[in-house]
Design goal:
heterodimer, A: about 400 residues, alpha/beta, Rossmann fold, 9 strands, B: about 425 residues, 2 domains, nine-stranded mixed β-sheet, about 40% helix
Chain lengths: ~400, ~425
């Protein structure tokens, strides 16, 4: 520490969101100057992100799309930065005006960001304005994962899920919360579940919209390439088929990012390349995005989709975010993304049918010895808070009622 | 076939890449001369894009275990965008007779060099990904003109070096189905069209399944093949890999080393690019089509480049220009996505699986050279089991995945030795 250093490392500093107009203009120029491949040689999405959709996206992105609207939305929220374990962690922190609001830390995943969570801030912190009662109120903390959004990029290896989970516990304690809950899907589920495994006394329960429930015998049978076991229920068979498709056809991006994230120079240099890589995340949210660019009204809008992609672009986090997969792959003994981790604290599960796999209640019951809530919705894909904010909000109010 | 083609060729017009002969009906079987001539605007655009590259942050490890390192990539891009001269390799390409002929609806580009030796053995040589005909340029001299390259006149070959569909100057298929099996049929047609009644085939990487399929199909006129990426991993080893079960007992040291090699390539990223291009070529394609640095990063993830020094070691096999020639060819022909589609068209067939490629059905002579710097080094026991008609097996100490490119003299000597017994059958 030098004489002039007055900032304590544990200080929580207000953070001002700001983007350079030049970078926004450069993005538009790059999208317009895109060099394109020819269209796919099939009439469906089986070769990946289709040419027609990508062109529609690029056209809108380089013409009518207005980033400043999203920037204004971000600027309207209270942002903070605090150093934890040597890394500057960015988070949005909105306190409810209601007393006894339950603190919740909500974690995004890849290819998500804090932009995924913006729609639930109002309903959770200000329930009386959104069809709820004062007793439904939450204080919400929405951090950006290391290497994502405004959080610093890691310069050394080691920021894996357990380290992030420990950092989140530190963050909540630093904010003075002695009783809180955690929520997440995608990597946010992994982080929340591992927080549940660490089980600090302050953490009351977790909520997940992408539970890791696949029983070991199912994982093993699938890895061996065999047929589904004969005794599966219809929900289990459906989950098997979804997972089988994902492992055979949908896992390329995750393999790539787990093994060689630094290979993806194209995503830092080509906005359309970044957009296509992000759209490829999973086939069912991709199908939804195709419909959105075809003009169909869905839970996500064109602006939603481009806000998130533009956020990745402007923060230049395509490669740094991919590194989280690499970190996870350094300890393969921890098992696969959907393998049961053995969380013992209370767990609330929200299932959307068009998630990578829709967790069957039978598996969730086995995976979580203290399953306090299970709800399967009739519609929805991977991005719960972003696509179906009302349903996720209702589930959070309902499942955490007992902890108030 | 007459032997005066060099004179004829001079009399024919040269077509640039952008102004090829007018589109002909697909039934047209003519063989049209082809000349590479990339418009300067495309080269200027490449340089502009390289200068404007937006880079990610540096890797978090002190080695290449997260992929091509930032500092090396930046240095490579700096050289690529300034001192590197595409026109040199363009001139080299144009120093060989090149042609285009339409086969099965796709324009196939090929280099065709006849030996001056009357008894030359014709050979079709197939590249792979991320290779191109540029990989094979250094072996044209030793193969077609052996007396000038330490061989005897009896070692001479005529060489035919096609660009795979979707690669280099070949056309891009507009429909699915162009897998190695179909390419093998097309190559048979090409050799027939060139008037070759007796010939051999060679290939590494994708060139290996293509050559092996030619042999399995007994393409008319084919006498035998030489491959440097044999599909030789025993099914029980592949199964053990998939299920995580223990490996079979009683493995020899060489077999164990081969298994370690397979594990190594999987870890080094072959699984990464392979699964992505097999399942989603169109998803990864946009970025590597739009960003030259991105294309280079993606190509350099191939384990064949694992030990490449980026030109830092002048003694090492591939120079910076060698590798940039190949990457620039991909860029200028806009084949990043179309080339990746071969993995999709191939489907789930593992490159090293004898079951996938039905190698036991091959009865034509098969010759194999294992280059010890390649990451996949199957032992003779495996290769013999996979190819019952194996007539030649040799391990050589130098040379890796891109053997013809890295060790052209040694590679040529291997082909001379491997095919010597077949020459009497011409």
């Amino acid at each position: 520490m030098t004489q002039t250093a007055t900032v304590q490392q544990t200080d929580i500093r207000p953070f001002r969101v700001s983007f350079s107009a030049e970078e926004v203009a450069d993005l538009r120029r790059r999208v317009k100057a895109t060099k394109w491949p020819e269209r796919e040689t099939v009439n469906d999405a089986s070769q990946g992100v289709q040419f027609a959709t990508t062109q529609k996206l690029a056209r809108y992105w380089s013409t009518d799309y207005d980033w400043s609207k999203c920037e204004a939305k971000l600027k309207a929220l209270p942002h903070f930065m605090t150093e934890i374990d040597g890394l500057d962690i960015h988070f949005i922190h909105v306190k409810s005006k209601h007393p006894n609001a339950l603190p919740i830390i909500v974690t995004h995943g890849w290819p998500g960001s804090v932009i995924e969570q913006l729609k639930i801030i109002g309903p959770l912190t200000d329930p009386t304005a959104y069809g709820g009662s004062a007793s439904d109120a939450f204080d919400i903390v929405i951090p950006s994962l290391p290497g994502y959004g405004f959080t610093a990029k890691t310069s050394k290896p080691g920021w894996d899920v357990p380290r992030i989970s420990r950092a989140w516990i530190t963050l909540m304690k630093r904010l003075g919360y002695t009783r809180f809950v955690a929520q997440g899907g995608d990597w946010g589920n992994a982080v929340s579940e591992v927080m549940g495994l660490i089980a600090p006394p302050e953490l009351l329960a977790i909520s997940t919209n992408m539970p890791a429930t696949v029983p070991p015998e199912i994982s093993k049978a699938m890895a061996a390439g065999g047929p589904p076991p004969a005794n599966l229920t219809p929900d289990e068979l459906n989950a098997w088929k979804q997972l089988d498709f994902f492992y055979k056809k949908g896992l390329g991006y995750a393999n790539e990012m787990a093994l060689r994230p630094q290979t993806l120079y194209a995503l830092a240099d080509s906005p359309v390349g970044l957009a296509a890589w992000i759209l490829d995340h999973d086939s069912q949210s991709y199908d939804l995005i195709v419909r959105v660019f075809d003009g169909v009204s869905e839970g996500l809008t064109r602006d939603d989709i481009l806000d998130n992609i533009t956020f990745y672009w402007l923060t230049n986090t395509a490669v740094s975010s991919a590194r989280l997969y690499w970190e996870a792959a350094q300890t393969p003994s921890r098992g696969g993304f959907f393998d049961v981790r053995g969380v013992k604290i209370p767990v609330s599960v929200t299932v959307f049918p068009n998630e990578i796999y829709a967790a069957p209640q039978t598996w969730a019951t086995r995976a979580y010895t203290n399953l306090i809530y299970f709800k399967k919705h009739e519609k929805g894909t991977h991005f719960a808070a972003w696509e179906q904010p009302a349903w996720l909000t209702a589930d959070l109010r309902e499942s955490f009622r007992w902890f108030r | 076939m007459n032997r005066v083609w060099p004179l004829l060729l001079l009399a024919l017009p040269c077509y640039s890449q952008m102004t090829q002969a007018p589109t002909l009906p697909v039934t047209d079987t003519s063989i049209r001369p082809f000349h590479v001539q990339i418009p300067q605007a495309q080269i200027d655009d490449l340089r502009r894009r390289l200068a404007a590259t937006r880079w990610p942050d540096k890797e978090t490890v002190p080695d290449a275990s997260q992929g091509a390192q930032l500092a090396r990539m930046q240095e490579l891009a700096r050289y690529w965008g300034s001192a590197y001269d595409w026109r040199k390799v363009e001139k080299r390409l144009n120093s060989y007779p090149q042609f285009i002929t339409n086969i099965d609806g796709v324009d196939i580009h090929f280099i065709h060099v006849r030996s001056l030796n009357q008894n030359a053995l014709p050979m079709i040589i197939t590249h792979g990904w991320p290779g191109s005909v540029i990989e094979q340029l250094k072996i044209i001299g030793p193969l077609t003109d052996p007396t000038a390259h330490g061989g005897s006149a009896a070692d001479a070959f005529d060489v035919v070096i096609p660009s795979l569909p979707g690669y280099g100057f070949s056309g891009h298929p507009s429909g699915p189905g162009w897998d190695p099996t179909r390419i093998a049929r097309a190559w048979g047609e090409l050799m027939k069209r060139l008037g070759y009644a007796r010939y051999v085939a060679q290939g590494g990487d994708w060139g290996s399944p293509v050559s092996s399929e030619m042999a399995r199909q007994k393409v008319p006129g084919l006498l035998g093949i030489h491959i440097n990426l044999p599909a030789a991993t025993p099914p029980e080893v592949t199964a053990a890999f998939a299920s995580g079960a223990p490996l079979p007992e009683g493995l020899s040291d060489k077999e164990r080393a081969a298994i370690d090699g397979l594990r190594g390539t999987a870890k080094m990223g072959s699984l990464a690019y392979f699964t992505m291009m097999s399942a989603r070529p169109q998803a990864v394609g946009y970025g590597i089509t739009d960003s030259p640095a991105g294309l280079a990063g993606w190509i350099l993830v191939h384990p064949g480049f694992a030990n490449w020094t980026y030109g830092a070691d002048p003694q090492a096999a591939l120079s910076r220009d060698d590798v940039l020639d190949d990457i620039t060819l991909y860029w200028l022909t806009n084949t990043a996505t179309s080339s990746a589609r071969l993995y999709w068209d191939n489907g789930p067939k593992g490159a090293t699986s004898p079951t996938a490629w039905k190698t036991s059905e091959i009865s034509l002579p098969v010759a194999v050279t294992v280059f010890q710097e390649d990451l996949y080094r199957p032992p003779e026991t495996w290769v013999r089991r996979a190819y019952p008609s194996l007539t030649y097996f040799h391990e050589v100490q130098k040379g890796g995945h891109f053997a013809a490119w890295e060790q052209p003299q040694l590679f040529s000597e291997e082909l001379r030795a491997a095919f010597k017994p077949l020459r009497g059958q011409q």
